[in-house]
Write a structure and sequence with these properties.
alpha/beta; 8-stranded mixed beta sheet; about 425 residues; single chain; Carbamate kinase; 14 helices; VC0802-like
Length: about 425
């Protein structure tokens, strides 16, 4: 049994959706579950719609909704010559639901509203892809992930309730892919989304479709997971930044977890652990060249990757905190600081402390002002915006020199295998809180 995951780039247009059918055609000789993300850039588009609607910027929300609708209808019109096909009515119904959600007078918290609205990217993509596969002769069941991926109500970053999820997957999904038919009947479902105990939609965090594939693989005791990407496999650097980047053929679970933790976009950070727990290999392959071997990730004590690996995170903020009462940075201060970070859902990409200061590097965020105000109650705060965080694994001094390229290093942290650098073009942009 295998689990396939197709990301947004692999279903970005009508030709890409048809290519999914071509890949599946060669892989229906054993039981299969297929997980699909929202179509190309549509999660970003739905997030912008959520921002406008929640702030009651209804003109902007309507314009954004029209852009989302036009994107999907253009793909539909290319895929289906017969506009009386049932998929057109189904998509119309989904957009009626989306319109109703954006018009809600009582929207609750933004995170709950986000999880009510943004999953429609996945619901639309799977509905359209399923209809295309059916007219191409692929027998399958379209299953709503919200009926078997059970989570808590930590909206926008929901935690999986594993026992309930495993029970539901084995009750609702396993029977659909069992049997001896050739080709196998497969299941198609959404990544990224689930539901809480009250039946409300939840999301698993950005890029969470990879995680959905891992959850299903764990619950079904799959033989392997294949993630289909627009690159040959896991590269040692983003090809858009490093044209000379090379593919890593093999990787251990532990090294893959570290790369994901540091920000490598190829794999969602939560994906690896469920697979490692059951020794399920993860293969990253190109949907453009499916015959290529890709990158094979599995349990191993061996260090496969010998080339330097570069991970870049942009739009970073470096924050330095000093207690206002002239005390040292101690466990009590850190407990208080981390409480504020948790309250504002701030993920720390790098941290470093001395006796009298605590510095962190974080992603820039919309509510940064409120977050800084909360910190300023008990701490003096300085920060830089518009920085880069560069992580290099298997580094040497020449690697560092080449990527820094005469820019100023504001913070540096090294271990035996990894160096992290927070860099800026200039150092005179500190702002005092």
């Amino acid at each position: 049994m295998k689990v396939f995951k197709f990301g947004g780039a692999s279903i970005k247009d009508a030709a890409s959706v048809k290519n999914v059918a071509n890949i599946l055609r060669d892989n229906l000789h054993e039981p299969l579950v297929v997980v699909i993300s929202a179509m190309d850039k549509m999660t970003n588009a739905f997030e912008l719609l959520a921002d406008h609607a929640f702030a009651n910027r209804m003109k902007e929300a309507e314009e954004q909704l029209n852009r989302i609708r036009d994107f999907h209808l253009n793909i539909l019109n290319e895929l289906f010559q017969d506009t009386s096909h049932a998929i057109f009515k189904k998509v119309d119904v989904l957009f009626e639901e989306i319109t109703g959600i954006t018009a809600l007078k009582e929207k609750g918290s933004f995170n709950a509203f986000y999880d009510l609205l943004v999953p429609y990217g996945e619901l639309l993509s799977t509905s359209i892809t399923s209809a295309c596969l059916k007219i191409s002769g692929f027998e399958h069941t379209l299953a709503d992930a919200r009926t078997f991926i059970h989570t808590d109500n930590n909206y926008r970053n929901a935690r999986v309730i594993w026992e309930d999820t495993i029970t539901s997957v084995n009750k609702k999904i396993l029977p659909l892919i069992s049997g001896n038919s050739q080709p196998y009947h497969f299941v198609l479902s959404q990544g990224f989304i689930g539901s809480d105990p009250d039946g409300h939609s939840t999301t698993l965090g950005r890029e969470g479709s990879d995680y959905t594939a891992a959850i299903l693989a764990f619950a079904l005791n799959a033989d392997e997971v294949l993630i289909w990407k627009d690159v040959p496999g896991l590269m040692n650097a983003d090809p858009k930044i490093f044209p000379e980047s090379v593919k890593i053929d093999k990787l251990s679970y532990s090294d893959a977890i570290e790369l994901a933790y540091y920000g490598a976009k190829i794999i969602h950070p939560k994906t690896i652990k469920p697979l490692q727990n059951k020794d399920i290999p993860l293969i990253v392959k190109s949907f453009e060249n499916p015959a290529d071997t890709g990158t094979y990730i599995s349990e191993s004590e061996e260090r496969y990757e010998t080339v330097p690996q570069y991970i870049f995170k942009f739009n970073q903020i470096l924050i330095s905190l000093t207690p206002r009462d002239f005390s040292f940075i101690n466990e009590e201060n850190l407990f208080d600081i981390f409480g504020i970070f948790t309250k504002y859902r701030v993920h720390i990409n790098l941290m470093q402390n001395s006796a009298i200061s605590f510095s962190v590097c974080i992603d820039d965020k919309a509510d940064f002002g409120s977050f800084i105000t909360a910190l300023q109650e008990n701490y003096r705060v300085k920060y830089n915006r518009g920085l880069e965080l560069i992580t290099i694994r298997n580094y040497n001094e020449l690697n560092i020199e080449n990527v820094v390229n005469k820019r100023v290093i504001l913070l540096e942290q090294r271990s035996r295998a990894t160096v992290q650098l927070v860099v800026a073009s200039e150092t005179d942009n500190y702002l005092q809180g």
